[in-house]
Design brief:
- It contains five helices and nine strands; from the N terminus they run αααααβββββββββ.
- By secondary structure, it is an alpha+beta fold.
- Strands 1-2-3-9-4-7 form a six-stranded antiparallel β-sheet, with no helix packed on it. A three-stranded antiparallel β-sheet has the order 6-5-8, with no helix packed on it.
- α2 crosses α4.
- The longest helix has 11 residues.
- The protein is globular.
Length: 186
């Protein structure tokens, strides 16, 4: 027997699976906190625009929103392989991201390899901020990690850092060639 979809309950499940408060989900999706609460409590049905914002802000696919999560076996049994150079490209003015493990949905972390193109903090339009925590590992080159509440720190190949992403942050390459890092965002 197919159970009727309770979209609000599904939105809450997805939000909680990402350890997001209503406030954090509101910032990510651009939907008012009160609107999210009403959707989750089945008081209103989301418009197509709201569904689009939920999908984009929560980093999910539309089918995930409209289907119940599968009952995973203990241990999960999930796996994804990304061959060299086959990640999903996501260029920005300061970074050239290659998103890894793109076949897995509902991940608890997002791994990506990044080429750092920025050469000066002024290359940014202010601090980079987003929800979650981040781990970075310098694969090649030398970078400066700028963080809002700490002095800038230089990191060389093999160095790493872990930090709160809601704190403003940015990277600048000091190398002649663009630096390359591995980033994992949770």
């Amino acid at each position: 027997m197919v159970e009727p979809l309770q979209l609000g309950q599904r939105v809450r499940q997805i939000r909680l699976s990402q350890n997001l408060t209503l406030e954090e989900a509101s910032k990510r999706t651009g939907l008012a906190r009160s609107t999210l609460s009403k959707i989750e409590n089945e008081q209103i049905s989301p418009t197509f625009t709201a569904v689009s914002k939920l999908v984009k802000g929560l980093g999910i696919d539309i089918p995930q929103l409209f289907s119940q999560p599968s009952k995973a076996l203990p241990g999960g049994g999930r796996r994804d392989i990304t061959r060299k150079g086959e990640g999903e490209p996501h260029p920005t003015p300061t970074y050239e991201h290659e998103i890894l493990a793109t076949q897995l949905t509902g991940k608890k972390m997002i791994p990506y390899k990044t080429v750092v193109r920025a050469r000066d903090f002024s290359d940014y339009n202010g601090w980079v901020r987003h929800g979650g925590e981040e781990f970075l590992y310098v694969l090649s080159g030398r970078i400066v990690l700028y963080t809002e509440f700490y002095a800038p720190v230089e990191l060389d190949e093999g160095d790493s850092a872990y930090y709160d992403c809601e704190m403003g942050h940015a990277l600048v390459s000091l190398s002649k060639e663009d630096a390359e890092i591995l980033w994992v965002t949770a």
